[in-house]
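Re: the multi-chain job from yesterday

Posting the exact lines I submitted so nobody has to dig through the queue logs.
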Amino acid sequence: MAEHAWILAAVPGIAFIVMAAFGRNLPRQGDWLAVLCATSIFALFFAVLANFLNLGEAAWPVLNSIEWTAIGDFHLRMGIAVDQITIVMLAVITTVALMVNIFSVGYMKGEPRYWWYFAVLQLFVASMLMLVLADNLLLLYVAWELVGLSSFLLIGHYWERRSAVEAAKKAFITTRVGDVGLLIGIILFWEATGTFNILDIIHYVEEGAIGDTRLFVTMMFILLGAMGKSAQLPFHVWLPDAMEGPTPVSALIHAATMVVAGVYLVARLLPVFEAAGALDVVLVIGLLTALFSGVVAFAQTDIKKVLAYSTVSQLGFMFVALGAGYASAGMFHLFTHAFFKALLFLGAGSVIIGTHHHQEMSQLGGLWRKMPITAGTFLIGSLALAGLFPLAGFWSKDEILHAVEGQGTFFFFLISIAAIMTAFYTARLFVRTFLGKPQDEEVASHARETGPVMTLPLVFLAFMSIVAGFFIFHDFGSAFGFPGGFSEFVFLHYPAVFHVDWGLVGLSTALFVIGTFGGAWFYWNGRLDRSTVIAEWQPKVYEMVQRKFYFDDLYQFLIDRVVLGFSYLVSWFDRFAVNDTGVDGSATLTGYTGFLLKHLQTGRVPNYAMAIAAGVVALTLLSLAVGS
Amino acid sequence: MVPMENYLVLSGIIFSLGVYGVLARRNAVLVLMSVELMLNAVSLNFVAFSAYLDPDKATGIIFAVFVIAVAAAEVGLALAIVIRLFRNRSTANVDEAATMRW
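And the result, structure tokens for all chains:
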């Protein structure tokens, strides 16, 4: 089954075609088909996993490819490569996709274009699975663009709303900047090695087939793609805006799966990054992103925006782990983060539905009485994100701290700060949304718990948020299909048997306590005066944080002045030089010449005959002259 | 044997007469006849060259036959045009058929 893992991508692909064509006319607009599709790939994943484990280490990675096209001697193959990283990604994608599909049935009830929403969701799942299964960079790039497309379509689902359209456009264009880099990187790889196959490329690089400088440049381009997709500084601007899309989409695409494609890509090519000496760049970018978005999350008041910046920050953590050379830590954080961040987003979705579309924290508060299941699961998700022992986020953050330890005290200190900030904004989010007294009686009085179709996915994801961290342990991981525990399973070549470092556990818990209690103290019981004091004490700083360090303003300025200015120049050149002079000018010249020359046409046959005769005589004389 | 130059001179004379006729005559039928003269001069050249330069092969002669066939077809077509011209304009004068211009 593992060599036929492409079926996983094919099933939702077919579902997309069916639903896009007939979804509108199906009973219930085809949502059952979406859930059925998600359930079947979830089941199929276990068939793949069982077969993969049966085949044993010697058969990994499981390869299967067909010839795509042949041009002369150049044979382009496309196919799948299932290795341990792929298995982890498949686990995340199929699980979260199933939960999100079920949740969406409740969340999207009665919304416009219900069928289209589910159809595009299947397209996304199909392309995301293709992305992680692809054995060559070209196929990966195709899938990479397809997930971008589905993301664009889903962010802009409510296209009647101008902000949604703007956000969709912003997401597409911003990631496109990175994607161009990725494409250049892929082409550079191809030029140097003559292949797109990922394993071959790693092999060539390890043999030293590409020169140092060239390899570094190539990896910078590849990294650009990863940064765009994973919303790393300075490409992070699209992700918070992407919250315009339906909330389950934010959970699936903008928290659990698509945005980690960049992390996946770097993890997959980590040996190459290592050989290129580009890991430090990854580390620094990740660290800056983690710190930056942690700070910005303090000042956000929309619960989805807080979660969005939190996601950016956590993606930064993953990049830090990768940059430190610990792909297992990065992938592990990816794995656990997918569950608790999907949980938090779906929880936010449940709040939005339960309060009839209120998502400003200033209007919420005290919801736990009205929405106990949502509040409970959200609490578990928050604690997992903040890093409470022994929830999922604790173990993966621990691994990252462990990874950064070797990079020097300075980096370790900064990543600890970022961890404290994580706990802080998470506490703020939870306290202001669910605890204290209601900020808006009107909203609170109408709030009610959502139905089981929405709470059951929450409960399942809460369960995963508790246990996913234990996968790192030898026995627990083995029992759930990761023999030898997560790290060992994923990276046979980096034999790092996990052992609990109690000193680190203590430190990590201290970070959690500082952050959480700090956040809770500031916002306990719906009071804002403590935080307002700071805002009033340093209004400039506060404004800077609230305006997200002016990144959006800077980009807007660049677009308005530089891009549009240049566009104006180009359009002027097109109008005057190309159109008026080049095209119209040549036409006018031809017309005027014709006007002058038409008088040669007398219409009298003897004139023409005379011209011919004269021509013949002239030519004869000429040939005689030249001949002699 | 008559030298080849004689044939060529004769051919040249006939051709020049044809050119003169085409340029000087007004009547379309006479113009056509002059064209025939030019063609015949060319045919004569072909035959002369064939007989003197490569007597074993009939290349030039075959060309002459082709020229005669093509000339016949051309005259058939041209006379039809002349008849149409005469029907429409009541004249066969080429000077008067001068409307084919801008």
